[in-house]
Description:
The structure is a single chain. By secondary structure, the protein is an alpha+beta fold. The protein is 50% helix and 9% strand. The protein contains 26 helices and 14 strands. It has a five-stranded mixed β-sheet, with helices on one face. Strand 4 and strand 5 (37-41) form a beta hairpin. It is elongated, with a radius of gyration of 41 Å.
Amino acid sequence: MACMKLGSKPEAFHLDGQTLLCSTGLPSDVIIEVGEMSFHLHKFPLLSRSGVIENLVGESSGEDERNCVLQLHDIPGGAKSFLLIAKFCYGVKIELTALNVVSLRCAAEHLQMNENFGEGNLVSQTENFLNEVFGDWTDSLKALEACEEVLPHAEELHIVSRCINSLAVKACADLSLISWPESGCEAAESPEGHVLWNGLRTTSKRHSVCDDWWYEDVSRLKLPMYKRLIMAVESRGMNPEKVSGSLMYYAKKYLPLMGRQSSFQNGNRAAPGSTTVSALSEADQRNLLEEIVELLPDQKGVASAKFLLRLLRISMLLHASPSCRENLEKRIGAQLDQAVLEDLLIPNMGYSVETLYDIDCVQRILDHFMLVDRDATDSTNCIVDEAQLMVGSHSLTRVTMVANLVDGYLAEVAPDVNLKLPKFHSVAAVIPDYARPLDDGIYRAIDIYLKAHPWLTDSEREQICRLVNCQKLSLEASTHAAQNERLPLRVIVQVLFFEQLRLRTSIAGWFFVSDNLENNSQDQSGNLALTGRSTAQDEIVAVNDMKERVSELEKECMSMKREIEKLVKTKGSWNIFCRRLGFKLKPNSCGPRASRSYNKCKGSSPTSTTPLLSTNENQHSGKLE
């Protein structure tokens, strides 16, 4: 830490209770009262340095000179600063540091200790030392903290703005040119022989410094000073991510709930690794949170979705302003694809608690996401072909990621018996159909909801099941749906139909490829000697693999047939079943060995009965009409 020594005389004062006495041997002729302290001093050393004291002594000259009492209760820094001033006037050794120079500078200005009352007076001495302090990061930070004690006077002398400007310049400095700021009283030499000047190491060997090196230091500042510093670094063009990182660090340090997890699963307990304790009142925490939200850069993604969701949860606990919560909801909505399910489960903290979780808040966040992302939701670019559906491989676009998140969220809130059908339906319906390459997630959420709400009517069950596209269910989900007694009968039949239709299409495709390979092998039989044995063997292997696949698909057809027969036995006779739903039976058979045409399929496999949709059903869509 930088320091400056003034004066040369030894200590000449001693304290007796609340009275400071001068031990020069001369009787005191003036008493100066500062707060509860009384200073028994001499007029001449003080008059020669301070214009204010000179005027006060002149005003009291008509009174008893032996009992001259002056009151300086309003001096910046109080008795502590005046003691240093008295020592300066007497020429006693004092030491200026970053911790006391601000109050001394303000007190010297208050007492008019300028060059008119002696060369090298306290105003000029403290001002020169302040310029040295501003060259060092640590000293500038300490000086700014010291400004809190004499804030009005420090503001008037522009000490606060100069400290903030000094810190902002250093925080925005290029770390590739300088190393970690180190403070020192004067130029020192490092163990490697390199000179340290103003806290900057002038060496060709660079020391690795993280971008967040200044977060901890500035977090010691009180909110008003910290806010001005953040605005200063932003005005100097600092990277918004660095600014956001500092704000996140500050919030985690002074908001105790930032380090707690308060969902219903884990209770209200401290998060791992969190030791932050704050003495701020609830009102101060609310003010701090609102200021943090206001200071966050506008750019999307500079703050993590996890951090924003945690702020939103705390804003509800602290009853922050509606504008603050709306700001957070919009920020979260703009990057909802980065959120995780655990953070999205916000407990309901309203006065009229209907549901365990705040569904309305998530609905608003989701609506804002769709509003921001609507230009990127062109359905022509989001179609997933049949092969992708079978293997489940697809590119996760932003909307797809949010769709998976919403499906998981609905599955978590579905067991709540107080969750009304319109609210569940409105959240699920926000996601467009193309955003879900597979509908397994929304099907699972609906199944959980139906299980927790057995009193729903048939029309309500059909309404909620319209959210599922039966064509986009995986084989596992289709098998589960076919045996799910909670689903309406119409949904079960449609699931079975589209699953068999998919299998039939696959079988036809395999036969088509097999026929083409056999034709090619016959046409090129005369050229086998030229192409070699390896090509013929590869084709034979390919044909055998296709035949094995066809056999597997036939087994799946048989399994589906057994499920249909089981369903007929439990639900009623097949004819009544078909007449109710408008289906007709169409026999179809295929064998393991087939001719070149799929329509001429022969074999020993049993005949499969396939329900077909009548003309009033749309064969090209899996949505329920």
